[in-house]
Design goal:
Order of helices and strands of chain A: HHHHHHHH
Number of domains of chain B: 1
Largest interface: A-B, 62 and 64 residues
CATH class of chain B: Alpha Beta
Distance between the termini of chain A: 28 Å
Number of helices of chain A: 8
Distance between the termini of chain B: 29 Å
Structural class of chain A: mainly alpha
Oligomer: heterodimer
Strand content of chain B: 15-25%
């Protein structure tokens, strides 16, 4: 329940519920299909590891976060305001990591830098759009154990809807 | 348009116009049509078919949800204060199909709970016994498990956890809930396949929705015409004493006026209230001599409780709310609050949990460590009685206008202290239930849910100075204007409201058909 909704009119008023990643499920698929841009801006280069720090799942490889970053970046490229916010936000994030920047910072320093920015609109918008992208991805569902659509298989009626093997007094 | 559907002229002033096609409007339309009354049903949303329903929340949400601007204030979520549908079938597309009756004492909430501060709590003008025959009919119509020889749904693993925990902590009234979902084929509808996407529309039709039950049945009578994508913008009236028709915008955006002998409004509370407020000759709106229109807005007290269990549960598999504990529904002020609450199973998707499992827009390892144990999660929803307040209300925005040029509705809601006390108790009780089975971590989701149950803004009562409608949902001020949705609730009870909305619609339909037949309307 409760998929995120996206409407431009409330932009900036409630980043928690209405992130600036303004797309529906079908748009996500189109974006998935879009070729991941090869922009070489510093901000763009940070994005995969920023996404991993935001939503670190050990079972998801670097290539997954790189792909998500590519999709997000494509969204930003479509909107000069978003792009500018992202570039400046990521640059400030890197600056918060000390002289070596984000690239040379360890996890603790990176997390500390993110915590320092987590009240900012930039951060919340990035988090929310990354969240929608990552947690609607069937590879993430498979990793964490969400089955999704089982209609074609006849539903979960024949796929373990009532299976439980650890409950005291209940036969599996 | 389906075979058998009628077509009525705009100037035909013998028709009853029903606004909305959900649990109230769809059910009422069929009852009237079967009683020989000619009905035009205006529905703001489009008409989908079963084939349009896919098991994909992100795809279905924009397709069926009412996304026109609404502004939340107070304790209501600001940008999305209520969660209803704009589609033929209304919110019966999104509902979870839990169909409990309101308990007898809850119809007498004011008398039972006594004098409480800061609430406009009232008794209903009808009793549980008055509604019982219609509850029975509604249960038959909707195919509610446990009634009319319909077996219970099987429990999924999430239910088994709920049941085992409930029994450990001493609860007794636990089962797979009274559900308007077919465990076996019935009434032309298929049996539940435990898909787990109840709230996105049921792809097999096992869940009762007026889209494929009451609406086609009404069409088969030859007395009913559905007009989808037709947004009512004003109830036409003669100086607020008599209504004469409805102005609406059709699918092309063209304004039309349908004449009517009677108008029944079932737009789900926000739209019903907005339409009445916007149809008067004064800012007070239509049928509002009491000043109560828009006030006493109630939701339910809701909280999600998610537990990390010692082994896999896979809560997403199966009918979402087919599991309930009723022991706490009693009125027992010794717990520190009035009214009661249900605990029923629920599933949450990874996206929802990523958004809300931890408060305050959490991220990072504390969040993903929990999400990585999605398989082990058991979850329930607490649903408690909410007390009405005069200052919890629906109003019109002074200047903002929507795409139809209508004032944007403002939903102002404040928790009553009783609701917060109930919630705190209930969350603790649910945590105890799961801990009794070895849950190692419990998460409570509070204060973020938009209201799916909207009630009370045109409440029924005996005193025209303190209520908008009489016991039939007929407005005190205007005899041929009736309210046919949850707006008429005098109190919320702690039960999912759809069954009661449908039962009231059937009762209203019989009354209205009789009034029309006898020439009193």
């Amino acid at each position: 329940m409760f998929p995120g909704i996206s409407r431009r009119r409330v932009l900036g008023t409630l980043a928690r519920f209405l992130p600036w990643a303004l797309f529906s499920g079908s748009a996500v698929q189109i974006l998935h299909a879009a070729e991941v841009g090869a922009a070489s801006l510093p901000a763009r280069a940070l994005l995969p590891s920023v996404l991993r720090e935001l939503f670190p799942h050990a079972g998801l490889g670097d290539e997954f976060y790189a792909e998500m970053a590519g999709v997000l970046w494509q969204q930003m490229l479509a909107d000069p305001v978003k792009l500018q916010e992202a570039e400046s936000g990521l640059a400030r994030l890197s600056a918060c990591c000390g002289s070596g920047g984000w690239e040379h910072a360890g996890t603790d320093a990176r997390v500390a830098a993110l915590i320092g920015m987590q009240e900012e609109m930039f951060f919340q918008a990035l988090r929310d759009s990354a969240l929608m992208l990552i947690y609607r991805d069937p590879r993430v569902w498979e990793h964490i154990g969400y089955g999704g659509n089982a209609l074609a298989q006849g539903g979960y009626l024949t796929r373990g809807f009532d299976h439980i093997d650890w409950l005291p007094g209940v036969q599996p | 348009m389906s075979p058998g559907s009628a077509q009525f002229g705009l100037a035909d002033d013998s028709v009853v116009v029903v606004i909305g096609s959900g649990a109230g409007g769809g059910t009422l339309s069929r009852r009237l049509a079967e009683r020989g009354v000619k009905v035009v049903c205006l529905e703001a949303g489009p008409r989908l078919t079963l084939g349009d329903i896919v098991n994909d929340e992100a795809a279905m949400f924009p397709r069926i949800t009412w996304l026109d601007e609404r502004i939340g204030q107070g304790d209501a979520p600001a940008a999305f204060p209520t969660w209803n549908c704009k589609t033929v079938g209304g919110t019966t597309m999104h509902w979870t199909a839990a169909a409990p009756r309101i308990q007898p004492h809850e119809f007498k909430a004011r008398t039972t709970y006594g004098e409480l501060a800061d609430t406009s709590l009232a008794d209903w003008p009808l009793t549980s016994a008055d509604l019982a025959p219609y509850y029975d009919q509604a249960e038959d119509l909707m195919g509610v498990t446990g009634s009319h020889g319909i077996p219970p749904l099987p429990g999924n693993a999430n239910y088994k956890v709920l049941e085992a925990g409930a029994r450990r902590v001493g609860y007794c009234d636990v089962d797979t809930n009274t559900m308007a979902i077919n465990p076996v084929p019935r009434d032309g509808r298929a049996a539940c396949q435990q898909l787990g996407f109840c709230t996105s529309g049921c792809a097999t039709g096992a869940k009762w929705s007026t889209l494929y039950t009451e609406i086609p049945a009404a069409e088969r009578t030859g007395n009913f015409e559905l007009r989808p994508q037709c947004m009512a913008v004003r109830i036409l009236n003669e100086q607020g004493r008599h209504v004469t028709g409805v102005r609406y915008r059709d699918a092309s955006g063209k304004e039309r006026e349908q004449k009517a002998r009677v108008v029944c409004v079932a737009g789900n509370v926000v739209e019903t209230t907005r339409l009445l407020l916007n149809s008067g000759t004064t800012p007070a709106g239509l049928a509002n001599s009491s000043g109560e229109l828009g006030r006493n807005y109630m939701r339910h007290v809701m909280a999600g409780v998610i537990a990390l269990m010692p082994g896999a549960v896979n809560m997403h598999k199966g009918a979402q709310v087919a599991g309930v504990v009723r022991d706490e529904t009693r009125h027992d002020p010794g717990r520190g609050f009035s009214g009661g609450f249900l605990m029923h199973t629920l599933m949450f998707t990874p996206e929802t949990l990523a958004r809300w499992l931890l408060p305050g827009g959490a991220w990072g390892e504390p969040l993903t460590r929990a999400l990585d144990r999605y398989r082990d999660m058991a979850a329930l929803l607490i649903m408690g009685e909410d007390l009405p307040r005069a200052d919890s209300r629906i109003t019109l925005h002074e200047s903002r206008r929507d795409q139809h040029g209508l004032p944007v509705p403002v939903v102002t809601y404040y928790h009553h202290p009783n609701s917060l006390a109930l919630r705190n108790y209930a969350v603790a009780a649910a945590g105890k239930l799961y801990r009794s089975l070895g849950a190692d971590e419990i998460f409570n989701i509070v204060d973020v849910f938009p209201a799916t149950h909207n009630l009370g803004t045109a409440r029924m009562g005996e005193d025209p100075r303190r209520s908008v409608c009489n016991t039939w949902g007929q407005t005190h001020d205007i005899g041929n204007l009736l309210i046919s949705d949850g707006s008429v609730f005098a109190s919320a009870g702690c039960e999912n409201p759809t069954l009661t909305i449908a039962a009231l619609a059937l009762r209203q339909g019989d009354y209205l058909a009789e009034q029309l037949k006898s020439g009193r309307l």
